[in-house]
Amino acid sequence: xxxxxxxxxxxxxxxxxxxxxxxxxxxxxxxxxxxxxxxxxxxxxxxxxxxxxxxxxxxxxxxxxxxxxxxxxxxxxxxxxxxxxxxxxxxxxxxxxxxxxxxxxxxxxxxxxxxxxxxxxxxxxxxxxxxxxxxxxxxxxxxxxxxxxxxxxxxxxxxxxxxxxxxxxxxxxxxxxxxxxxxxxxxxxxxxxxxxxxxxxxxxxxxxxxxxxxxxxxxxxxxxxxxxxxxxxxxxxxxxxxxxxxxxxxxxxxxxxxxxxxxxxxxxxxxxxxxxxxxxxxxxxxxxxxxxxxxxxxxxxxxxxxxxxxxxxxxxxxxxxxxxxxxxxxxxxxxxxxxxxxxxxxxxxxxxxxxxxxxxxxxxxxxxxxxxxxxxxxxxxxxxxxxxxxxxxxxxxxxxxxxxxxxxxxxxxxxxxxxxxxxxxxxxxxxxxxxxxxxxx
Length: 441
Description:
Layout: H1 17-26, H2 33-40, E1 47-48, E2 57-58, H3 60-69, H4 75-78, H5 112-118, E3 126-136, E4 144-145, E5 147-160, E6 164-176, E7 182-193, H6 195-201, H7 214-226, E8 249-251, H8 256-267, H9 277-286, E9 291-293, E10 299-301, H10 309-314, H11 324-339, E11 344-352, E12 362-373, E13 379-389, E14 394-403, H12 419-439
Antiparallel strand pairs: 1-5, 2-4, 3-7, 3-11, 5-6, 6-7, 8-12, 9-10, 11-14, 12-13, 13-14
Helix pairs in contact: 3-8
């Protein structure tokens, strides 16, 4: 085998001429002014999601596996015999699972002119999840089948230290139950960058892989040993003060095993439908730019940068890294452990600012920054959240708003869905039912 000029391929990656050509093709796609303007045409158009998640129904097994997949053993989420003794009368799901249970929803396409003008927009450009926000309007119960519709809410162009110019998009997903009620809203912040530019900039190239001594593990294991969900012991709003700290939590060190547990637990391989053998071949034909040859000349998915460090290097990172959704789930786990069974996490937002690389540890902390009684009578607190890695670098931060039991007011309740969102969900769900009925006649 002849070796190609290595000047444009990742350091240490030996490839032949054909593979080098494919690598150059895969990393050559650009963020163009034309694509940016075309993408703006999508703002404000909601589209029913025809995707099917790894789980389309929140069965007790699915709920348990999602929670365990993010490292949360809270019996409220994992034990169907525990839930009936709580205020919910049932096992309920870890909150972030609401964004990832999907049955195909039928609906009308976006206007033909918009569809035509936005076909293949941002083709071959790399996408990072860099944070988002969650709002919850009721628990996810066993047997719930969720449908969703989504639309782009905003688009900004910014300069990025990682890859020069970048595009920031926010997409809103509305999750609807099989009875047409809104269960939750998930807004995802995505950053689009040029793979080749990020690699050439090499902003993170000097980061060294983590290594650990027995003393390091003693520190990590001591935190794991004290972690536990509060469970049935009520945390009263009356007993909480601004400045109170949440007990520490730790996640990691990150390994491929942890990534596999997350995928198998419920995340699946969204949104690109990673599959095996013949179905993988069909997927490669469907979205060819998503497939890039590895150093053996084998076609593989661009998503492998979450477990393949050689490919991660090809787009400017020193090694493979986690998913943004993982860290969102970890924030929820931290707050849920603190709050207890009777509380309601009303909303959460987060910003993911640094990568969590293979071998990295995330140390989670939280602090009560506000305490108030809402006009509705809800007794709530705001919690500032942080993740700091073993390099003492803050990688993510966020805020959660939690409604707690109050000694005079009793148990908290979920908020009312905003009228405009519920009206939209009602119309989308009615259209789904209409099209479903027509298809079986």
